[in-house]
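$ run holo --ligand "zinc ion" --emit tokens
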Amino acid sequence: MDRIKIFDTTLRDGEQSPGCSMNLQEKLEVARCLEKLHVDVIEAGFAISGPQDFKSVQEISKVIKNAEVASLSRALEKDIDVAWDAVKDAVSPRIHTFIATSPLHMEYKLRMTPEKVLEQAGAMVAYAKKYCNNVEFSAEDATRSDLDFLVRITEIAIANGATVINLPDTVGYTTPAEMEYLIKYVMENAKGAEKAEFSVHCHNDLGMAVANSLAGVQGGARQIECTINGLGERAGNTSMEEVVMALRTRADMYEAATGIDTKQIYNASRTVYNIIGQTAPLNKPIVGKNAFAHESGIHQHGVLANKKTYEIMTPEIVGVQTNNLVLGKHSGRHAFKQRTSELGYQLTDEEVNRCFGEFQLVADKKKTVTDRDLEAIISHHVSAHQIPEAEGYKLDWFSVYTSNFTTATCTIQLKKGDEVFEEVKLGDGPIDAAYNAIDAIIQPKEHVFNTYQIASTSEGQDTLGDVTVKLLADGRTYTGRGLSTDVIEASIVAYIKAMNRLMAEED
Ligand code: KIV
Ligand code: ZN
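-- output --
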């Protein structure tokens, strides 16, 4: 079995896509999940792109002990200086520098001749190498580049000390057969290729990112760049959970293995979805709600007779619990703690206290509390989304009046520390009225209301409403989430939390 390195770029290529931005605490939470997954490399960010990015790369570099930590940098001295400054405290730092190599990018984006691009690539790899032994070079838009030009730039990068050569499908254009050929061609023709490791980095514009990455492995690549849940620019990047499980399930075909602890996949996926305020599409491979569901009679019959009839991998392998034990209002702290640890959460005593309190409130309103409800409770009460209570506004009480023949009204009382604020406002429905009243109290700085999303945690009329609100300001996204059996209350809490983050301008 060949060993395939997993290079995770959720915190760089994933995070830079619309609606996926994260604050420092959230990035640290994701980085810890990646370490638990045993990814080989964490691309923590693009340090030069702003002070917040720099700080998060720096902090991640300090806390991660069991993975390499990389920062992206253009092939420019100032980028490389900043990238090194951000990763230098990592146990195992990596500088990842890139320049575009396709005729289109060189002419219109870089406005550089191919010869100048070759010279710059060599000089900048050498420059990065002065700081760090571990230097990755990426030929951006490799799949639309001339193959012999790729061979030349690869030779130059390796001659100047690059330890990893990444050939990305930047625009998601290539096909599996082409990708396999491209990797093979460059590895066979570039002098010194045996001194470097080859890597693939695919985007999913035509839905082929996972297939193209696997084809890259067949061509000889030994590193796959990917993101949790396939987050990333446009249609996303190669999905980590899919590519890892494809390699594992079809080891007979690829004769290659990753070091990923697959039992951590489901929790990592949930953590990332919760942080960005999204849920997995029902049919998302590996982590979607239906990924292991067998609905049709024929399938159910087959699975009952022998699971392998319709199941190519077990849900347990990716950390999905199938014994959907339900807790209720008579379940005690012990049962609560046990179930949460079976679900893969290692809560501190303080976190158990916080979540158990919320569990009891939910159990009072709902007959049964399912695993999905528990996951929602934990993600709301243990997540890094929280601003310390004293600093933000909190809902004290609200009252709404609404019907289909009058304008909705909301009266609301918020608290901030010892101060109490009350407002009454009208709106196009109870949530609009509540949000108008909250605006009148908080008087937020300029922003755009970007997303309102409501999801149910489980089946049935008494499900919890899980609301996500996203506000945009200064190019950043401020997310708030609320959870309640009352969707208006959940909506209010989500909005107040997003507002608290907007007003705190924290990162
Ligand atoms: O898609 C791409 O080409 C990239 C590079 C910067 C590695 O993200
Ligand atoms: Zn990319």
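-- notes --
Residues 114-131 form the longest helix (18 residues).
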